[in-house]
Every structure is written in structure tokens, then in C-alpha cells.
Design a protein that fits this description.
Blueprint lengths: L8 H8 L1 E4 L5 H17 L11 E4 L6 H7 L2 H11 L3 E11 L7 E4 L7 E2 L5 E6 L10 E3 L20 H5 L9 E3 L6 E5 L4 E3 L8 E10 L3 E2 L32
This protein binds nickel (II) ion.
Nickel (II) ion binds next to loops.
Length: 252
């Protein structure tokens, strides 16, 4: 069934650190959410990088009711918790648009080192394609099993193709799995699974929505991050409540 887990999906996810799930969204949902993402990109500020790997809108669910439906989609949350095997909370969401012809690659990185978290280990990101994403439009590539590394993780420059491999030379000869997606398909990846995205060489924008979950008991580490910066948190405070809602229950 589209949007449901194949029998081996959980085992594959735990071994590889990522999974491709076809048909998470129905075509009418894709059309509505794509329109909302493109409108949001006109009115919400994008984070800035040296070049332009993507237009990046953070926490759109707090600014746009339609995108909130996508970020809080029960099917997305249920898939995330089934794959992660742990109770989760929403950490934040991102609309990620690679503009036609002028977007560069998003180079290899791990996600979790950028995040101000303690007590988290099962982060999972649902990366939902809102247009068809062949390789030439900027799809994701994963390094299978890289989330099992015991070495220290680092946040690296997303625009430097050599940065992650300089800090993780054991991954230089890793297999790489590139996963083009149809609109409505999604990948789910672990916060410690190395990944990248190709540039958009096509005439159409690559529109994706990432919903990022963390363990339900995650606490604030005190490190700087744009999501927590306005909240006045102290190190050790729980990341919970209405800004970090449980994935699969309505409220807490
Ligand atoms: Ni990433």
C-alpha cells in the first residue's frame, strides 16, 4: 500500500539509517502543500548561505496553517515513530527549495551536530518531495550505515564538498545510495546518517518539506540555534510543550 511500511522497512531503516517510502502523500495533498510552500517562500525569510544551496524556511508550521497540516500530518508522524522505534517530538520543519539552474549541491553532512540537544539519539527527518525529484533536480544521496559510526560527529560547511570527509575519512570509500523521488514520496533519515543533495539543473524548482523529529525526552544543550534562540531557555531545560509537540498525540 502506498504510504505504508514494507515488511522489512523498519529493519532496513535501522541498518542503513534511511528509508524511501513511496506515496506518503496523495496527489491532491501534494498539490495543496506545494502551492503553500511556494507562496510561503515569497513571504517568509530564507536563511542565508555564502552561495545558494537552497531557499530554506524554518518552522513554517508556526506561520502557515496549510504547512502546519503537513508538518503535523498523522501519517508522517506515524511512519517516523515506527521507523525510529521511539516516542518523538517535533523539533522543527523546513521548506527547502532548490531554485532552477542557480542552486548548488548541499554537500555531505550529518544533521544532528547542528542541533542544541542532549539526551537525543533517535532523531529522524521526513523529507517529503512536493514535486517530482529526479537526480537532476536535487535529490538526496545517503551513506548507508554511517549513523552507526562511533567517532565524533561535527557540523560542517554545507557548501564545502570536502568538509565532512575531512572529519570522517572512514567514509571516503563508503557506498552511496541516491534516491530520486516522485512527488508525494518521502525519505526518512537518522540525524547521524551522512547525506547530501545534488544541484537543481532543471527548469523547475525543487520543492521539498522536511519534518524533523527528536526523542520525546530531548533537553536543550545550551548551544546556539535559530529555533531555540528566541525562547530564553537554560541548558538542561526540556524541549517540550506546544512548540515541540509530541509527534503522534494531539497535545501535552
Ligand atoms: Ni541534512
Amino acid at each position: 500500500m502506498p504510504g505504508e511500511l514494507a515488511p522489512d522497512a523498519v529493519e532496513d531503516y535501522r541498518r542503513n539509517g534511511f528509508a524511501r517510502i513511496p506515496g506518503v502523500l496523495a496527489p491532491d495533498e501534494v498539490a495543496r502543500f506545494r502551492e503553500a510552500a511556494l507562496v510561503a517562500a515569497e513571504r517568509l525569510p530564507s536563511r542565508r548561505y555564502k552561495g545558494e544551496p537552497f531557499t530554506q524556511l524554518v518552522n513554517t508550521w508556526q506561520a502557515d496553517p496549510t504547512l502546519a497540516e503537513l508538518t503535523r500530518h498523522p501519517r508522517v508522524a506515524a511512519l517516523a515513530e515506527a521507523l525510529a522505534g521511539a516516542p518523538l517530538r517535533l523539533w522543527h520543519d523546513q521548506v527547502l527549495i532548490k531554485q532552477p539552474h542557480r542552486s548548488t549541491a548541499t554537500e555531505l553532512h550529518f544533521d544532528a551536530p547542528y542541533w542544541p540537544h542532549t539526551g537525543a539519539h533517535d532523531w529522524i527527518t521526513a523529507w517529503i518531495a512536493l514535486v517530482d525529484v529526479p537526480v537532476e533536480r536535487g535529490c538526496m544521496t545517503f551513506l548507508p550505515g554511517s549513523h552507526h559510526r562511533s567517532a565524533e560527529f561535527a557540523g560542517v560547511d554545507l557548501e564545502d564538498p570536502a568538509a565532512l570527509l575531512a572529519t570522517a575519512p572512514d567514509l571516503v570509500y563508503s557506498e552511496r545510495v541516491t534516491l530520486p523521488l516522485r512527488a508525494g514520496d518521502a525519505t526518512f533519515h537518522h540525524g547521524h546518517c551522512a547525506h547530501m543533495a545534488t544541484p537543481n539543473l532543471t527548469d523547475e524548482p525543487r520543492v521539498a518539506h522536511a519534518v524533523i523529529f527528536m526523542d520525546a525526552g530531548t533537553r536543550f544543550s545550551g548551544a546556539e540555534h535559530p529555533v531555540t534562540e528566541p525562547l530564553g531557555l537554560a541548558a538542561g531545560d526540556p524541549l517540550d510543550g506546544e512548540l515541540f509537540p509530541r509527534a503522534t498525540v494531539p497535545a501535552d
